[in-house]
Structure formats: structure tokens, C-alpha cells
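Backbones bend. Shown next:

***
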Amino acid sequence: MPRVYVQLYKSAPTMAALLSSAQVATGGLSPITAPLQGTPMVSGQWVDYSGSFQQPGVQPGIQNAEFNLKAFVTTIPFLGMEGLVQLDYSVVPLIEARMNDSTNVTIDTFATALFNNLSNQQQLIGLPAAIDDGTFSVIYGGVNRTSNTFWKSTYVHNGAPTTPTRNLMLQYIAQVTKQTGEMPTLAVMGFGTWTLLAQDFTTQERYNITPGSAFGADNKVEALFRALDVAGVPFYADPYCPEGVLYLINTNYLSLYLHERAAFSFTGFESTLPNNQLGYIGAILSLLELADVKCKAHGKFDNLSFLNI
């Protein structure tokens, strides 16, 4: 069979969406800098008919959040003897298979870190640190959440496993929206959690049939959903998201940054002869980081019930 049937990896919808809308980071290894206004920089006051007012003072209201780019390298070896053995007899070109696998390994690693990495500074800092109120990550982007309360996300830990319903999701959306007046743009949860939430919709499903028409080849009956819509916010399932956890995300303020000179850049193959070995080795290099520049525009809710699927 002239194909490799990969058994290891899963689709990574959230990571794919972040990559498709990634921002460009430039320059050297200096961090991504986001100026934050956490306090007023000017003051106002009521005045009487004379128009007199107190002399204003300078109020510094800006500080910087800084995010360091993280380096990820996927190495691709190719031994000289492997090439000779495969020459003109290959069913699946080994170098092609390894190049394809390097993409799968990279995306799997990125998606895993996105939903799990909290404190390892050599890895992509993921959502558990970016969307938090200081419970798990007190300092994010070099800014302390304890002394800068504007840098806190909405975080709710349910005391007991709580069934996700439309009314509960609406409450969560309202909690996050109340902080900034801006609604989240999407929600992400695990498949078991998402499926349990979907069951709250199914009893309300109905079919509308236009008079004179019928279900046929071009008019199929469509049941259930690809995304669950609550108050205009689409809820998606991601296989990498831990079960029982819901992230409400505003994509206007959460972006993945890729360096312009190291966005899945291939080094080319170099000979391994200096190491007394016949063969070649190449590498794919990425410099990236996830940056949340307005933490309170997002929310995290956990200890939700989910189906064991």
C-alpha cells in the first residue's frame, strides 16, 4: 500500500485556529511586549459656574506585559544506508513519511501544551496560565495578578460536579461579559463535556417542513449539531481539552505569535560525515508563544460533569 496509515494523532481544532490567525513576531529573541493600562492616566472633577478646577498631576497608568518566544525543534534523520536500500524500490518514500510525521508531532506537542502547560518556561505557556485569576498562575507575562486585579480572568471552580446546561452556560457567559462588556467569541470543552451539554439541546429539536416539499436526496433530515450556540457564542469540542473544563475565549485578545524567520522553517539537510556516519540530518524550527493581552475578557470554569466516551 503506497500510504502510511497514521494511528497516533488527533485533530487539534483550537491549535489549528490559532495557527491560522497567528500574529507575526519580528526582531531578535526579545519578548513580545504588550502595553497594559490598568489604572486611569487622567482625572476628572466636577466644577462650579466659575470653571475652576484643581491642578492635575501625572498619573502613570501603563505597564508592560512581556512574553518570551519559545523554541521547538523537530529533527529529521536520514541514514545513508536507508537511502540506498530504498533507491527505486520504495513503496512509501521514507523521507516523505518522516517529513509528514514532523508536522504531526509538532502540532500534537503544541496542542498538548496549549491545554496543559502552566509553568514550564521552555514550553508554550497554555490556557491554564493565560486564563486564570491567580489560583494557578500568580504571575503571567511578568505582571502580578495579586497586585494588579485587572489582570485576572473569571475563574469558577464548582464545589461538586455540575451538569452543563444551556442556562448554566448563559450564566457563565454573563459572568465573563460583565467584566468588560464584551462577549466571548467562542467556547472550548472536552468531547465528553460537550456531548453532555448537547443533550440539553436535543429535547428541543424540531423539523420545519415547507408545505409542498418532502425529505429526499437534496432535503436531508439533519439532526444535532456541529457547534452548540448559546447567546450567540459557539461551543466547540476539542480532543485535547481536559474533560470537565470550559474555556470562554475572546479571540480579539488571545493570539498565537510566530516569529517571521522561524515559523516551521526547514534548515535543510546537512551531512553527518563529520560525526563519522553516512547520512543526513535536518530540522524544523518554530519560535512561538501564546499571548493573552486582556485576561479578564476570558473565563475558565471547571469541575463540570461529563460523559465517559
Observations:
- The first strand starts at residue 23 and ends at 25.
- The two ends are 32 Å apart (CA to CA).
- DSSP finds six helices and 16 strands in the chain.
- The chain has one domain: 13-27+61-205+223-292.
